[in-house]
Amino acid sequence: MKIYLAGPDVFLPDAIEIGRRKAAICARHGLTGLYPLDNAVDLSAADASLAIFEGNEAMMDAADAIIANLTPFRGPSADAGTVYELGYMAGRGKLCFAYSNDPADYAERVARSFAVTKASGGHLIDDDGLTVEDFGLPDNLMMIHTLDLHGARMVTPRQRPLDIWHDLTSFETCVRLAADRAIGKSG
Amino acid sequence: MKIYLAGPDVFLPDAIEIGRRKAAICARHGLTGLYPLDNAVDLSAADASLAIFEGNEAMMDAADAIIANLTPFRGPSADAGTVYELGYMAGRGKLCFAYSNDPADYAERVARSFAVTKASGGHLIDDDGLTVEDFGLPDNLMMIHTLDLHGARMVTPRQRPLDIWHDLTSFETCVRLAADRAIGKSG
């Protein structure tokens, strides 16, 4: 089983090393991890961003499943590129797995950066008066329920690990879930 | 042509009214707008979030295209739920259109909320040392290029409108682009 390894990990200073660690964990479980190409492209080329897109789309099309790192990125929600890729894989009917190294629920995450209050209707709103989803889920319901229905429940640690960008415990749990499915498929 | 109308518009205090306005604009151009169900579900029910997910997924499956509102939402990027839906529709091979009422490029958006500096390699990084995409695009490259390849270039106004959540000028441009494709398809 080939697994597309989506996440803002590609933006880390040691992005290539993290990709190697993730691929090695996949290999230990009999799976092949495909790591996005963002760091294998000449960024000074005029069409660098398009080359990354086309490479990543081809890699997703070749994969049977996705493991998405949905740890909050520059705000209360996951990285937009990763979320796009999760949606794309769900749309293609592939198996969807994901983890977040931040177990806090969405309303709590929003309250870290915005003034969350109760509107007259009793629901939560932010500074702009826009509703804050309050279903006790870690992120937007579309992402959470697609995992429930098209893969497995999102994996979160009981406590936020010390190094939120390098701890791969929850990632490895996703790899195990994928490996169980791979065995189920071939058996 | 049926168009799924994705966006954080569902979180506005006047969400239902905005949905009506968007559907009316679609109708004027001979198209059918399908507005997400978030506001048609009993939020006190135990499975409210799942009911919204299932309703929205069925609506996306019934649609031929998506028009996504990718205006930045609680951070430099678009609303995660909307981004998920854009990915899902791209994965299903549907036509993809989108607009953002904020024309600023991504690095500029990040710099509004985070300390962006140059790393020793010359690329931009945020407070955490994570790379800030700097391709002159308004948001993450995966979303921008999927529009270029599976629909039309993202629509942005020359200037940010006064009311970023209610101005539907760029939305109507997307509807026109979709209507042109609908005529091309049947002609």
3D structure, described in words:
Two copies of one chain form a homodimer. Chain A is an alpha/beta fold and 187 residues long. Chain A folds into two domains: 2-103 and 140-186, 3-Layer(aba) Sandwich (Rossmann fold); 104-137, no CATH class. Helix content of chain A is 41%, strand content 12%. The first copy, chain A, contains six helices and six strands, in the order βαβαβαβαββαα. In chain A, the strands form two sheets. Chain A has a four-stranded parallel sheet, with helices on both faces. The two termini of chain A are 13 Å apart. Chains A and B meet through α2, α3 and α5 of A and α2, α3 and α5 of B.
Task: Draw up the topology in text.
Two copies of one chain form a homodimer.
Chain A: E1 2-6, H1 15-28, E2 32-34, H2 48-62, E3 65-69, H3 80-91, E4 95-99, H4 106-113, E5 117-118, E6 124-125, H5 141-150, H6 169-186
Parallel strand pairs in A: 1-2, 1-3, 3-4
Antiparallel strand pairs in A: 5-6
Search tags:
homodimer, 187 residues, 2 domains, alpha/beta, two-stranded antiparallel ribbon, Rossmann fold, four-stranded parallel β-sheet, 6 strands
Please write the CATH class name of the largest domain in chain A. Alpha Beta
Beta-strand percentage range of chain A? 5-15%
Most extensive interface between two protein chains, with residue counts = A-B, 59 and 59 residues
Reported for the largest beta sheet of chain A, the result is:
4 strands, parallel
Strand tally of chain A is 6
